[in-house]
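Troubleshooting entry. The earlier prediction with adenosine-5'-triphosphate gave an output that would not parse, so I re-checked the input for stray whitespace and re-submitted. Clean input:
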Amino acid sequence: MSARAPLVRAIEATKVYAGRDAPVHALEKVTFGVHASEFVSILGPSGCGKSTLLSLIAGLLPLSSGQIVIGDTVIRSPYTDVGIVFQRDVLLDWRTVLGNVMIQAEIRRLDRRAALARARELLVQVGLEGFEDRYPFELSGGMRQRVAICRALLHDPPILIMDEPFAALDALTREQMNLDLLELWEQRKKTVIFITHSIPEAVFLSDKVIVMTPRPGRIQETLTIDLPRPRTLAVRETPEFLAYTRQIVGLFKTAGVLRERSTAGEQVPR
Ligand SMILES: Nc1ncnc2c1ncn2[C@@H]1O[C@H](COP(=O)(O)OP(=O)(O)OP(=O)(O)O)[C@@H](O)[C@H]1O
Ligand SMILES: [Mg+2]
């Protein structure tokens, strides 16, 4: 593999589910690459196959055709060198915060002492110091997602895949989580594949935004987000940021994902 080859590659990745009555074409020939340390968002309407794509990348589902390649490995079974944050936080109610993070160590049979030290360090980093012995029911939604992120990072995977991790959070918590995630990413330089419905969230976080069509999900366009880093909330007020979000709104209108009553003189900037 050359130094410039993408770390994660989807090559004509296609998924057809058997379905109850008829086959469901979830993904159709999706091809893209994600370079090491890149932050890439996958943005698309509900049901376009984003979670399916995540499962294919992580080797949790077989492809119908095409390939997923990570490094030199063609993915044919669950790929373990990845951290996954699922659409719901899936914490175990009967385990403490620390216990939930440590599941990763138990499953992977990591050295317990080293894993404990790392779990505590991660919890401090995401602002959960002092909550190690609390149970999930004692936490807010944002805190629960932070625990899920620590669990995904415990084994220090080079790749982090996140499936709408902040969708259930209130707007303010979501903004904070975006900022915290960027900080974590800048410090640890993970390769991140981030799935979202939110146009501003995708533009704010990413180096690249992959815009998908409605089902069967195909790549409609890939945008390179050329905004300076480190990014602060102020970047969202800039004309460059707004140009990106408008461009994506335009793409969703073209694909019929967004419809509005026609207004005299209304134009979508391209
Ligand atoms: N196990 C399954 N069997 C049959 N169809 C499925 C299965 N899982 C998903 N699908 C279908 O595949 C399509 C894509 O689903 P997927 O969950 O990947 O979408 P998504 O983009 O993640 O949606 P959302 O944004 O709502 O999370 C949907 O039409 C869904 O109904
Ligand atoms: Mg989904």
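This one parsed fine. The pocket of adenosine-5'-triphosphate (ligand 1) is lined by residues 17, 19, 24, 26, 44, 46-52, 87, 215 (CB under 6 Å).
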